[in-house]
Each structure stands twice: as structure tokens, then as C-alpha cells.
Amino acid sequence: MGSNTDVNAGATVVFADMTGSTALYEALGNEGAAAVVAPLTQAMGACMQRHGGRVVKNLGDGVLGLFTEPGPAVLAAAAMMREYRQWISPQAQLSQVAIHIGLASGEVVEVDGDCYGDAVNVAARLCERADAAEIWASESVVAGLRAPQGMSFVRLGHLDIRGKAERLVTYQVEWRTEDRSDRTVHAELRSDMAALVEMETCPAQIQLSWPGAHRLFSSAEVPVNVGRAPDSHLCIADPRVSRVHARLEWQRGAFVLTDLSSFGTWVRFDDSEAPVPLRRDSCLLHGTGEIALGVPFVDGSASTIGFRITGSSLRQR
């Protein structure tokens, strides 16, 4: 009997998986953990279906779903993030069980109830790379798509994806309604984004230093990704540092640091005693100072990066 094959040229794949399930199995044993995991995967699948998707299969502690359009897929992924704590038991919360999701659009081949193709592989790899409570999406998902109200698409740049010959433009879907997409610039800084005027065209540089190494970037060489991922421009091997922890950009004549992490970033300027805490927001960098990743400066074990900016001065109106 021949196989039943169907080619879908424009599908969006949602690959949703659990983090922390290994610790859950260690804490509760196979039977106890399965009793927690099974209802959670069922709820994830039901959420996809409510948003117009179709569950292709359960993956032990994850779900693979297909959508005909990227918009409903993004909404389903955000809904899973917002609702999953209502689905899990107290034991799962204690074990820090969470969800991470990868999205990709493209041609999908369905064969006898399963699906294959580049989009499936990319969605799975992006899910692997995303931290807990993060949604990563390929450019094919967000291209031409307007971010839903209360959400934003954060460009992570070109990333190496296992199995792909070329680096892939990747975005993070920021789903947290309390984190504004316009990203607040902290008032403690000597200048704010609204007060900036366009700078002269003279080149600016930022030197970043960490134990045993330093790198110099010009304003034309950013954005720069900082994180634990091996393909980060600055790779920091610290488990408290997110895979893509922070991004350095050049905006309106200034270097801007944006936190993308799970645990936060802190900036301390040499001319100020109080550090600036960042949680999914941004600040302008000026002069010299330090950046702490994952834990604040008061924790003596924090991974820190020193910075020095030359060739640029902020001018106020």
C-alpha cells in the first residue's frame, strides 16, 4: 500500500517543547513526571487548535503543530507562554518547568500523519536555541507580518543554525505585555533617546573587555550579540548568561544596549555609583563603565564586560 503524501508550500511550523522536564523526572520518577507532562502537552496542543492550528504529533514533552498562516501561529505561541503556568502542577513549578518555542515557515511535506521539510527542521533548531519562556522565529515567519498589539519582534541578527549552510536571520517574539515594544530608556542616564539629535558622521567606536580578551567595534560593525551561544559575537561561558543575552546597536548617534535575557543585565558607569538595571529594555552607553550579565554587581561572581566609547559625544537640544 502506498504512502499518503501531501506537500504544503506555505505552512508555518510551531515546535513547542518543555524545559526542566529532566529535573522533573529525577524529582518525581517516571510515573509521577509523566502524570505532570501529559496534561501539559495536551493543553499545549489544545491551545494550538484554538488558534486554528493542527497538532501533527506529540513529542514526549513537546508538541509539533502546523498553521496555514504565520499570524495565528504567533498568537498561539504567545498564548501558550501566557497560559502555561495555569496548566502545570505545583510540582512542575517547583522544578522550574517552562516552555520554549521555535517558529518557521516554508514548504512542508506530510507523509502518513507526520511532516518533514526545512521549516520543520528550522523550527526545531530555533526551539533548541531559545531559552525558557522565549519564542524564536525565522525571518520567513515575521516578514510582512505586523506584530500583534502588546507584542514586538526583536531582531537577533544572523545566527548559525545546525544543519543550515548559511546563517539565518532570526527574531525573538516578545510576548510579555508588561514589556513595552518601544523599550524604555532609563532616566538615570545623562541623556535620553527623545533628547538626542543626529550626530556628526565621524566614526564612533566601542571597546568591550572581559577577562583575558577585548574587542573593538565601530558604529558600522554593530549590531553585536552578547550571550552564551557559541556563535555570539561575544561568547560568555556562564550558565547564568542567556544564549542571546543582550544586543548592542547604533541608534541615532549612540550605542544602545538592549537586554534580551531571562535574568537581566546591569550597567554601571564610571561617573555614577548606582547601576542601571535592565529587564527587556534598553539604555544608552556613554563614556566608560561595566556591564554585568545575569546577576547584579553586588554578586562578586557576576560575569562583567567593560566598555569604553570613543569618537562620539551625545549632544542635547
Topology of this structure?
Elements (H helix, E strand, L loop, with lengths): L4 E15 L1 H30 L3 E5 L3 E6 L2 H18 L2 H5 L3 E14 L2 E3 L1 H12 L5 E4 H4 L9 E8 L8 E7 L30 E6 L2 E6 L5 E4 L6 E2 L10 E6 L2 E6 L5 E5 L6 E3 L3 E4 L2 E6 L9 E8 L7
Parallel strand pairs: 4-6, 11-12
Antiparallel strand pairs: 1-3, 1-4, 2-3, 4-5, 6-8, 7-8, 9-10, 9-19, 11-13, 13-14, 14-17, 15-16, 15-18, 18-19
Q: Average pLDDT value? A: 81
> Count of helical segments?
5
How many domains would you count in the coordinates? 2
CATH class categorisation of the largest domain: Alpha Beta
Q: Poorly predicted ranges (pLDDT <50, ≥5 residues)?
A: 179-201, 313-317
What is the CATH architecture annotation of the largest domain? 2-Layer Sandwich
What is the tally of beta strands? 19
Could you say which overall geometry the principal axes of the C-alpha atoms support? globular
Name the CATH homologous superfamily of the largest domain.
Nucleotide cyclase, GGDEF domain
- Tell me roughly what share of residues is in helical segments: 10-25%
> Remind me, CATH topology of the largest domain?
Alpha-Beta Plaits
Radius of gyration: 21 Å
What about the largest sheet?
8 strands, mixed
Beta-strand percent range: 35-45%
What would you note in describing this structure?
This protein has two domains: 5-174, Alpha-Beta Plaits, CATH 3.30.70.1230; 193-310, Tumour Suppressor Smad4, CATH 2.60.200.20. The protein is built from five helices and 19 strands. It has helices spanning 21-50, 70-87, 90-94, 118-129, 139-142; strands at 5-19, 54-58, 62-67, 98-111, 114-116, 135-138, 152-159, 168-174, 205-210, 213-218, 224-227, 234-235, 246-251, 254-259, 265-269, 276-278, 282-285, 288-293, 303-310. The strands form three sheets. Strands 1, 2, 3, 4, 5, 6, 7 and 8 form an eight-stranded mixed beta sheet that branches. α1 (21-50) packs across α2 (70-87). The model is unreliable at 179-201 and 313-317 (pLDDT under 50).
